[in-house]
Amino acid sequence: MNHLQKVIFWLSVSTLVFTAPPLSAEDNRPAKIKAAAIQVEMIQSDEIQLPAEFQIALYENLIRQLEKQGGFEHVYRDGDRRAASASDLVILHSTVHGFKAGSERTRKVTTVAGATSISIHCQFTSPDAKSLLDRDVSGKVRFFGGNLRATYDFAKKAAHVAHENFAPPDRKS
Amino acid sequence: MIRRSTAILSAVALAFAGFVISSANSQQSPQPVKAVQLMGLSGVKDNAKGTLKVEGNQLHFVHAKESSDVSVTSIEDVVTGADTQAAVGKTISTISIAAPYESGRFLALFRTKIDTLTLRYRDGEGALHGAIFTMGAGGAEAIKKDLVAHGAHTTAAEEHRTTPAPPSNPPGKEQRQ
Question: Which residue of A53, A80, A81 is in closest CB contact with B116?
């Protein structure tokens, strides 16, 4: 075996060593929960006084992002009667447990201060109220944009959590 | 006898005047309010500019020659709030980034007061929707009064009755950011 062959051999071995663990880790990932549809309940903020526009923006952005990247066949709104007949339905309950209203003006002037942040506990349950998944998801706006942009950030992250953990029954997880 | 007939005439005149005034008020259509629909209204793009008007038990948002309507009786909650927005437009704000010694940030100090109007309503299937509008200061309260007069519900008034607003809040504003 000449020098070049040795180099190629060791390069191949090292490539295998670096790529094999992630592949095996993928196999060890927990299987996705089967769900074809999701119903989004209105955001609850009993303990934290949340401005009405934040509550609505969280709800509307969440529905939008779940439709966009949640991976569900149907996304139902709070109170939608059609959800009652949906099969493989999960219900998303969101409760605000932290909110800091920043300032767009402060962000623009100082760059480092005035961040808006919101922390929400997301609970995915079955229609019979059995808990399937619990996650704390936060939304932030640090530099640019209005305060409501924090609700968009939260919605994107929450939809990502849903996409990572749920899959339609016919789809390979 | 004369006193009695005078009293009867006065009562009839007052009743007639009351009827005329109330019918005039009911026919009076408030002026449309310029508003920006931030998000939530079905079939309307975010940040669409238009006018808001309450007419015939419907809330109309007229934008780009189209009208999006919400039945007033389907509105479960109307909340007004106060906010501020940048006084300078996006273009000037973007150009100002290039200003030397970060002097462009100075423009960020100038902001104008705006009102927010937040609605919660249900569609024919019972599904809950929300919509957020912004408009010039004072506009949201007028629309809210109109909506409530036409049968919309509001939780803000009930909260005010039970728990008085903190002294820092200006009157007529339920929520502040």
Answer: A53
Three-state SS at A148:
coil
Contacts of A28 (CB under 8 A, 6+ apart): none
Task: Spell out the residues 6+ positions from residue A46 whose beta carbon is closer than 8 angstroms to its own.
Answer: A95
* Rounded distance between C-alpha atoms, residue B159 and residue B149, angstroms: 18
| Number of other residues whose CB lies within 10 A of the CB of residue A121 | 15
Q: Which of residues 2-41 of A touch B (CB under 8 A)?
A: none
How many C-beta atoms surround the C-beta of residue B57 within 10 A? 14
Is the whole model's pTM more than 0.80, yes or no? Answer: no
CB distance B108–A53 less than 8 Å? no
Cα–Cα distance, A113 to A104 (Å, whole number) = 9
Residues in chain A: 173
ipTM > 0.95?
no
Distance CA B116, CA B112 (A): 13
Say if residue A78's pLDDT is above 50.
Answer: yes
Least trusted range by pLDDT, from A155-159, B10-14, B139-143? B10-14
The helix-helix angle for A149-165 and A52-69 (nearest 10°) equals 40
Cβ-contact B82, B170 below 8 angstroms: yes
Q: How many helices (H) and strands (E) does chain B have?
A: 4, 8
Q: Is the Cβ–Cβ distance between B40 and B132 less than 8 Å?
A: yes
Give the nearest partner residue to A109 out of B109, B126, B130, using CB atoms.
Answer: B109
Nearest beta carbon to residue B128 from set A51, A77, A148: A77
CA dihedral sign of residues B36, B40, B42, B47: positive
Host H or E run for residue B133: strand B128-136
Nearest-CA neighbor of A165 among A132, A137, A139?
Answer: A132
Q: Topology of domain B31-176, per CATH?
A: PH-domain like (2.30.29)
Q: Which residues contact B40 (CB under 8 A, 6 or more apart)?
A: A56, A57, A60, B119, B129, B130, B131, B132
